[in-house]
Amino acid sequence: MGERGERREERGERREERGERREERGEGMGEREERLFETKVGRCRGVDRVFASTVFGAMCLIWAYRVRNIPTVGSSGRLAWLSVMLSEFAFGLYWIITQSVRWRISFQIPFKHNLLQRYDEENLPAVDIFVCTADPILEPPCMVINTVLSAMAYNYPPNKLSVYLSDDGGSELTFYALLRASIFSKHWLPFCRRFNVEPMSPEAFFASQINSTTTEYAQQCLFIKKLYEEMKSEIESSVGKGKVPENVRSEHRGFKEWNGKTTKQDHQAIVEMIMDGRDRNAIDEDGLQLPTLVYLAREKRPNYPHHFKAGAINALIRVSSEISNAPFILNLDCDMYPNNANTIQETLCFFLDKTKGHDIAYVQFPQSFSNITKNDHYANSYLVINKFELAGISGYGVSLFCGTGCFHRRESLLGAYLRGYKAKWEIKPKINDNRSIDELNQALKSLVTCTYEEGTQWGKEMGLVYGISVEDIATGLAISCRGWKSIYYNPERKAFLGIAPTTLDVACLQHKRWSQGMFQVFFSKYCPFIYGHGKINLGVQMGYCNYLFWAPMSLPTLCYVIVLPICLLHGIPLFPQLSSIWLLPFAYAFLSTYGYSFCEYLSCGSTAKGWWNLQRIKLIHRTTSYFFGFIDTMTKQLGLSQTNFLITDKVATEDIQKRYEQEIFHFGGFSIMLTILATVALLNLFGLIGGIKRTLMDLKFNSSHLMVQISLSLLVVMINLPVYEALFIRSDKGSIPSSIMIKSIILASLACCLAPFIY
Ligand SMILES: O=c1ccn([C@@H]2O[C@H](COP(=O)(O)OP(=O)(O)O[C@H]3O[C@H](CO)[C@@H](O)[C@H](O)[C@H]3O)[C@@H](O)[C@H]2O)c(=O)[nH]1
Ligand SMILES: [Mn+2]
């Protein structure tokens, strides 16, 4: 651990102790009322630690067994043994890393009432909300405006709220949708206010609406629903046609920005203040002010890098600083709609706390999704990560920045260091009211040209970090290393809900980008062990590596699921026989870690089948997405390819949606990932059949030597049942194409036949 980090922590602990003592002396009560949040330590820490030590012991025994029993040079199976040994080393080391996030689990509890007592509406700080979208097809404008409308409908003074939409798709369809949303908001916001509507996303709200209770409410509900449906169908029909109707174009001067030549990759900067919060005419049907609403499409030219989402957020930071310049910024992906009307107040409890608030850079909420099925067959819900792992890292006073659902202190995003610095939030908008709207627009556009950032610190010391496809992780790390604290807050009612992938290939592409980006962080200047040395706790450094090592951990997994069945087929034992005492550490390590993971999962309130599904997806990602992520990182390190960002598809055809809801895997497609997936599944099936045959036929061979391999292959086969089904039984669009089936049969057979030459 970095010495400085340690010392700082000691100091922190001492400060806490002092606080406790003061409380004992009877000054506690007043202080408690003053406090705006509290940190609670997770229970069972002691039990957890004892358990972890026993697993560690078992692992050491396994390593010892492997090293002591390496086959001599020239004997069969030496290479296999060595590769399995290395894999087990890797598994063990990775397991140690995963413990770092379970060592100090802690939870945050904000005291909203204390905040509301201390601050009335007048005194509350302004908040800017950034929404990013990048493609009107993959991210339908209707979905985008639902997020925007929910953000506008927060239970927060509208004059303190500004919503900025960055459209990297540069699409007039999205602009049109936003324009329509601004009109609809004049009805929607008062409606939300009157009836405390939650969720504030009209789409989600009307979908969950069954029968109303009061007649007044019912009438209004019906009226608003009709307005919403009208707006939705108009937007969808324009999207269907691919253009905005001529009569609408003439209604707003903003449309002049689009001409025949405008494309996603090539257009001038477009900034439109759709609603200006200071404008007396921007009022809703109750005569109350509306939040400021701004549309932004930064300039894009083919020969200039735009740095994807990081570039978009940085442009938003600059534009918003000229308009509202709020001290706090909420970042949202366009599918992540706010689901709790009071989230802003809860978050401010952390930032505005008198003693601990000033050094908090950001407050991250977990990523949750609205479309999770009962047994979550693509393991989209990240239950354990959200409930335990991120809370575990937050025990060190640091949270990961996950890109969306995160409130930032503006200064922390601008590269400020915390050292000797007292963060303040009484920042005023820079806006010069004397400027005409045209002058202001001109000034704003000049901030988001392609060349604006040349020769500046943007993307390096300022704003979100460039060049890494998980800009969020790298940026969070950089901020923490500048001395800031951060909070991970996982409230009972989900604060934000997004859309999770509904097909396997979309899920795999997303995980490939993540694993690639995170491993890239490890090699970049932001490597937690080097960049973070002496600045963040060792536990945090290791905590990050839980995720940064997703990609390289694909190698030992691949080795295990390929070498084991091949050896089984050829009768080469790799594990102790059943009667050996050395089997115990293997059995204990395996059963206890999986047992623990099972309990952990169930304690998140999900089903046993969900856990089983999670194990399958983990295997799939580790053998495909992470493996390709690994290769991608390597080619990038060698300078052979560049950072990319493939947007996650957020629409599903009816066919796909139906299969998703029935929890049937949608493999579909012809990717090389599917070939690997199918080959691994077949290889284990061959191994299992061969192994069982051997055991039955050749009892003298002391086949109990193979029992462990048989059991492991059996598990892999069981977990792959949906793959065999998709290969041989199913024939719908979600099944695996026959060309891939043939390829994988050939590959698996080749691997089996060629193996003896290699070993
Ligand atoms: O050039 C781009 C590409 C993407 N986006 C936006 O970035 C967001 C996230 O993209 P998405 O395709 O949904 O990726 P996910 O994998 O779901 O995103 C997760 O992972 C990303 C890092 O890989 C983070 O940036 C995201 O916040 C986090 O939700 C979306 O709103 C996009 O519109 C842009 O604004 N510009
Ligand atoms: Mn997303």
Automatic annotation (TrEMBL):
Subcellular location, record wording: Golgi apparatus membrane
Keyword Cell wall biogenesis/degradation belongs to the record: yes
MF term (GO), any: cellulose synthase (UDP-forming) activity
Region (Disordered): 1-29
SUPFAM superfamilies per the UniProt record, alphabetical: Nucleotide-diphospho-sugar transferases
Binding site for UDP-alpha-D-glucose: 139, 168
Transmembrane segments: 50-67, 79-97, 581-599, 664-686, 706-728, 740-758
Keyword Transcription found: no
Any Gene Ontology biological process: cellulose biosynthetic process
Keywords annotated in UniProt: Cell wall biogenesis/degradation, Glycosyltransferase, Golgi apparatus, Membrane, Transferase, Transmembrane, Transmembrane helix
Record-listed Mn(2+) binding positions: 309, 333
Membrane topology per record: Multi-pass membrane protein
Active site: 168, 472
GO cellular component, as recorded: Golgi membrane
Task of the protein: Thought to be a Golgi-localized beta-glycan synthase that polymerize the backbones of noncellulosic polysaccharides (hemicelluloses) of plant cell wall.
Name of the featured protein: Cellulose synthase-like protein E6
Record lineage: Eukaryota, Viridiplantae, Streptophyta, Embryophyta, Tracheophyta
